[in-house]
Amino acid sequence: MSIPAEAFVGELKRHGFDFFTGVPCSFLSAILDRLEAEGYRPAVREDVAIGLAAGAYLAGRQSVVLMQNSGLGVSLNALASLNVMYRIPVLLIISLRGYQIEDAPEHWVMGEVTTRLLETVKIPHRIVGDTTYLDDCAAVATVCGVERLPAALLIRKGAVA
Amino acid sequence: MTRAEAIAAVRGCLTDEVVVHANGAICRESFALGDRPGNFYMIGSMGLAASIGLGVALVRPEKRVIIFDGDGNVLMALGTLAMVAAERPGNFLHLVFDNGTYGSTGGQPTHSRQVPLEEVARGCGYRRTLRVRKREALVGALQEFQREPGPAFLLVEVSPEEPEEFPRVPLPPEVIADHLRDWLAGG
Question: What's this model's pTM, rounded to 2 decimal places?
Fold first, then answer.
């Protein structure tokens, strides 16, 4: 069963997240539709979204960056040399293209390695489930809010609608 | 004009702005003039100085935000100019010290020698753009741009020579972030 986007976004807001930017993915479209009303700012590239989110954090916000997993590769240097190094937290909401599903060829490699890549760069992550999403959101909010580090929620096809 | 002279001229005009410094010599030469509240020194994440500054500017529209950027940094994330222009933050001043080289890595040429970055910014839709070469023109333009709504883009042509001494910014990164966040929170 899908998690209603309204409930998912409501949970993010309940945990204090209040600045939203990113680059779209079709798996994230229901969430992005909901975020229009929350002042979502589109970015040109995923690492630029991370920069924008970092600036918003320095100005007092709790930031979220949405992206396709293809954008994770683009973002690695920013995550390492900005977020982790300065302890500037960011919640990443990353779609899982090519992960345990039939998908277009451009998603095969990154789809297979997304979770392992996050483990390699020590970014805690949860694959969002309809029965676990309250706990998933609470876990990443603790990483961002208490440890001041990046964390990721991974979104499978149709997980949030 | 050297970049250090240009940075010193700009620092002399500052009051309570947020200044986001691009990585490399720009951080180091500005820090050598003394730390100040509102300074953020971007040590890694090359290309992201303007997007970090844009994030601050959008959340705190009453605060003036200045980016001390370099040509290599601007070119690395050129799409950021479109984002700045589309968001139209009135409190955003993009200062680019353009020496036409990647100075910290041995002076390799950048594309700014062929591509005038202030024209790219104008094409994107920055409200004001200008190129200056002399100290007097720099100070005059800065004072004018600080009175007018942005986003503004001021390209400062500087000579490509690099200083021999290059002390790094000695502050731990976490302290750099906390200084700015606490200062912006009024604490």
Answer: 0.97
